[in-house]
Amino acid sequence: MTRQPHEPRFETLHRDPRPTVSIRTTIAIARLAEAQGEGFAELWKYTQDSGVRVDGQPFVRYHTLAEGETDVEVGVPVAGRPAGAGRVAAAELPGGTAVATWHLGSHDSLGETYALLDAWLRKHDHEPDGGAWEVYHWFDLDARPDPASWPAPETWRTQLIQPIR
Questions:
Q1: Is the four-CA dihedral 79, 103, 147, 25 of positive or negative sign?
Q2: Is the torsion defined by CA of 91, 131, 103, 67 positive or negative?
């Protein structure tokens, strides 16, 4: 069978825990994009004001998804173990075994990549071990988050990481 160019590949990997700063909240899914934008702006301001060094790409982690709302965490890996302040909390992306894949392009079709990830888990007899997260390789928090300066959505590279057992 020939692999289609848009068909994602899956990689099983072992991750070490990563310290982060993040904002976690439960919101209506209809407000997700707005809340992410607000959260990334607040994280950028926190890292600038506190001198905390960003040490990786921004992420969004979904802890639960039910009945039109989600428990979502917007964050960024950091060097060291900062204390956090206000809504910004010191947190950690978990270590352990995970499966990773890439979604290329706009997030309008991100659900299709998640469906393929779920099918891969079933096919390989794995179960999720906590919430999945998306790592945004198309912007960083070295500069103030500004959607007007982001690249065209068709060029976005987003990595999906799902801890497994």
A1: negative
A2: negative
